[in-house]
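Lecture 7 notes. Example A: sequence first, then its structure tokens.
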Amino acid sequence: MADPGSQLVAAAHRAGIPVVPHIGPSALLLALMASGLEGQRFAFAGYLPAQADERATALQRLEDRSARGAETQLWIETPYRAQAMITTALKILRPTTSIAVACDLAGPQQWIGSKTIVLWRKTPPDLTNRLTVFALLADRAISATWVDQAEHQTRLPSQQTRQNVSRVAPPHSLAGKNRRRSPP
């Protein structure tokens, strides 16, 4: 998806050559699955700019988009720029934004971590020479909102509180198989 392979596949379609995808690991989907971030709404941004100022601007745009749409933003980075990417992210993103870092997926040196920016700042990862997929979910997105309100629900037993929380929480987070999300 992120490589020039898409041009070859498009050319095959134009030439009438059958295209048959084969099942196999996809670093993007593996990273999303392992991130713990929003998996129902996500977008792939490819590679972000290499220049520091442009990279910072692109990160802020991804964070803003995530906050507006409760949407996880995914992007990839080359091994020689992954450390610069995380360094920039830790400097400019909001403390409550979550970042998942997935390195060398499906390989013997695979490593995955997922924390808020404030926690990553305490123990930044060393991504030197690691092929990395990043995933970001902004603080205004669904992650903090429904967890906080679901915890609040257990402390306040009133029926009105339970109804309010069920309107915000995703359907799969509510107890019971047959509970449906109430319309807002």
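Example B, a different protein, same format:
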Amino acid sequence: EPSASVTTVTDAWLRCTARAIHERRLWLTDLDAAIGDGDHGINLDRGFSAVLGDLETGAIPTDGVAELMTSAGRRLLGLVGGASGALYGRALMTAGTRLAERAGDEEISRRTLVEIALAGAIDGITALGRAVPGDKTMLDALSPALAALRAAPPDAPERDAMLAMAEAAEAGATATIPLVARKGRASYLGERSAGHLDPGAASSAILIRCLADAVIASDGQSMPPRMPSAQP
């Protein structure tokens, strides 16, 4: 029996993400400066800091996970500039919609809910950005994370499934380094985009690590945070 509700875990995930993005905002911005507009970390930090502020002041409804995700997504959509705001905002809102569809299912496991939310986020991003894995985008972290979660044995401990998901996201982000970007601002550079870690994949890996951490920590366990290996 989970020791914390899905809504509580989601709240903890958003708070972890806001802290982690703030701590790594300059690193993410440096990554983006190499192949993009140079504002990824700063923009995401502004958005997630606003979400954190909303959580602390009670401006975001926390009586249900779907409402929480959708409200956070709307906040990012309205505040974060560039493609990242639209993509992350749509990701959270689509995840919230998918979770709302399963709101009455009391038999569903937290692991399955994470899978539903992550699949919804990927669908939202894909519908908006028209990218596929291998295009050097956030999907290169998110898609392997979902695949790893689905590949974990059904009877595997929840912690093991979450760790596999986080590690797959980080490995996927690191694997963008040699890729040539085919979508987004980096695609304008063509072959010159190779040799750089994709900032969107890097920030996505941070979100997935925080998600795993929030689920694991909710049961009184802990794990050391580990970010993509390309981070200094």
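Note on Example B: Confidence is low (pLDDT under 50) at residues 227-232. Residues 95 and 115 are 10 Å apart (CA to CA).
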